[in-house]
Every structure is written in C-alpha cells, then in structure tokens.
Amino acid sequence: MIITRTPFRVTLGGGGTDLPSYYSRYGGLVFAMGITSYMYVMVNHRVIDRRIILHYSQSETVETIDEIRHDLVREALRHHDVTDAVEISSVADLPAGTGVGSSGSFIVGLLLALHHYRRDFVTLQALAEEACHLELDVLRKRVGKQDQYAAAFGGLTVLDIASGGAVRVERVVLGLSALADLAANTHLYYTGSRRDALAWLAPQDTAMADDRDARHGVVAESLHRIKEIGARSIEAIRDENFDRWGELLDEHWRQKRRMVPNVSPSRVDAIYDEVRTRFGVLGGKIVGAGGGGFLLLYCPRGHKPLERFMAEQGMPRLHYAVEPHGAKLVGDFSR
Predict the structure, then answer these.
(1) How do residues 271-288 score in pLDDT, each as one tens digit?
(2) HSE-CB for 108 with a 13 A CA cutoff
(3) CB 183, CB 321: distance < 8 Å
(4) Strand 86-92 and strand 52-55: pairing?
(5) CB neighbour class for 119 (10 Å; exposed up to 12, middle 13-18, buried from 19)
(6) What are the backbone dihedrals phi and psi of residue 324, each rounded to the nearest 5 degrees, phi first?
C-alpha cells in the first residue's frame, strides 16, 4: 500500500485571477497558504482480484476504467495506464465543499501515489501541472490553477501565472514566531454550509470570457483590483505587517462582493459586520469561491471573546498551523 498526504489551502490574496478566462488575457497572481489539515490517499495493488475498487464519499467496484464514475480517478488511472487490480481510498480531515481546495488536494495526492505505484519520480512543479492538465484540459472543468499548486507545494506560496498558463512558484519564507503569529491571528470558522465551487466560479468565468456579457466590465475591473490587492498582501506578509494584511483582506472582500453580490450568505455578512465593530476584526472573507464553507477573520487581539461569540453563532473555530511542506509520501508498504 502507498499512502500520500496533501495539505489543504487557504487563499491569502489574488483568488480568481488563476482562472484561464482571466490569466490568458492579463496574467494571474495568487498567494496561498498550506494548512495542517490534510487529504490522505491510499493506493493498493490487488494480488488476486483484478477489479478496480474505490472508496471515497461513495464506493465503486468496476471491471474497467471506463466504468468509473469518479472523473478525477478515472482520468488519473487512464493517464498512468493503470488499468486493473488496484484499490484506491481517500480520507480527509475536512469535508468537501468548504473552500479549502479539497479537489485539488485529492488529485495531487492521487497522482503522487500513482507515480510511486509505477516507481516514477516527479517534481512538485510537474505534479501540479499534471493535475492542472487533467482538470482543465482533459476534463475541461472551469477551475483555476491555485488549488493544485498550493496542494503540491504547501507553505506560503506565490503563483505568478503567465498568459500562456505557465506558473512560476515563489516561496515566502517567515520565521517560526512570525508563522505562529500569522496562524494565531488568522481565524478560520466553519459556517456549517457546503457548496459546489464550480457553480460559484461559472458565472464569473462566463462574464470574464465574453466581452459582450453585461457583467464583463465589472468582473474584469474587480479581478484587476483583486490582483493588485494580492500583490500588496504579499509584501505586507513578507514585511510581517500582518495588521496591514488584515486591512487588505477587507478591501479584497469588498471587491469580491462587488463582483459576486451573493458570494456570502446574508447571515455571514451580518456577522462579519458585527465582529468588525465589536471584536477588532480588521478584515475577512469566505474561503474559496463563495457560498459557504469557512469564514476567515483576521483578529490581532482579544481572540477568546471572538471565539466565544462565533461559537454562539454555531461556527466553531478550526485551529491549525502553516504547513511548510506540500504533497508527500508518508508510507510505502508495497516493496
């Protein structure tokens, strides 16, 4: 059995500029943080039974690749020419549909496991691009490139995306005490709701791709602004000026709500306004494409009162640290 572990991610700046409809015209810039919550993928060779068996939120037992319903698994196996006698399972620390890039973490973890299954070496850059190829080119999903790269590299990662799609990865390196301060002040609260990221990204992607769309101008201008705020966010965190980054979060959130007016439930909007007034929260946002999942709040002081208030709203805090590493092999019992 081969076991891989891949971190989930939280976007710190530039989210949405990694969609092809935007970066193919203007280039993209995304700043992401790997966190210590993970996707685990297990791949096992079946010695006698030649069928393919899958365990995820559902279970499948099939004779051929073409019968597999899980599209990412089907295309990953096809890409690696693994046609039978394999069992694949996944276990996640956090539920899907919560904005932390679970799909990207899953495909990166699965591909890394399949490379080890076939005794291939793969770089993190190649692994991320392979995942992007399957999602964007083969399956033609309307997703961006940040989840796959953030899952592969972990840490504090800047993705500079050229108009042709090439991604240059740059690390932002902070000391241990600064990383601890960043995680301590950057709260994640589970709103209790889950959503389909593709459903939230599709309207933005459609408007950005078509100059004739009534919302094209608003979406394009918002994404330009989000990219510029993302660049300033990178510098603020490099300088360890985390309070400034918190203020930039609020600027980003206002642009996101302008671009996608219903990006967050009205209850979450009301809570956000209240915590900024009562608990010294400098900024925040819904993590991921929108609609639910985790609410990120930057609070530089008075953490306990904020935690108690959010718990009263039915939103527990997820405690985490910054995960410095990306996708990795954690067990190979197949030798």
Answers:
(1) 999 999 999 999 999 887
(2) 34
(3) yes
(4) parallel
(5) exposed
(6) -75, -20
Regarding pTM above 0.70, the answer is: yes
Spatial separation of the C-alpha atoms in residues 274 and 264, rounded to whole Å: 15
Q: Cα–Cα distance between 272 and 249 in angstroms, integer?
A: 12
Exposed, middle or buried, 147 (CB in 10 Å: 0-12/13-18/19+)?
Answer: buried
Looking at this protein, which amino acid is placed at residue 259?
M
Joined together, the tokens standing for residue 54 give 């899958």
The continuous run of DSSP H or E covering 310 comes out as helix 303-312
pLDDT-derived band at 134 (thresholds 50, 70, 90) equals: very high
| pLDDT value at 260 more than 80 | no
| Chain-centroid distance, C-alpha 283 | 20
Token couple for 91: 């276990």
Torsion of CA 302, 305, 311, 316, to 10 degrees: 20
Residue 1 has pLDDT above 80, yes or no: yes
- Other CB atoms closer than 10 Å to residue 142's CB: what's the count? 18
DSSP codes of every residue in 153-196: H-SEEEEEE-TTS-EEEEE----HHHHHHHHHHEEEEE-S----
Sheet holding 317-318, edge to edge: 283-286, 294-298, 186-190, 317-318
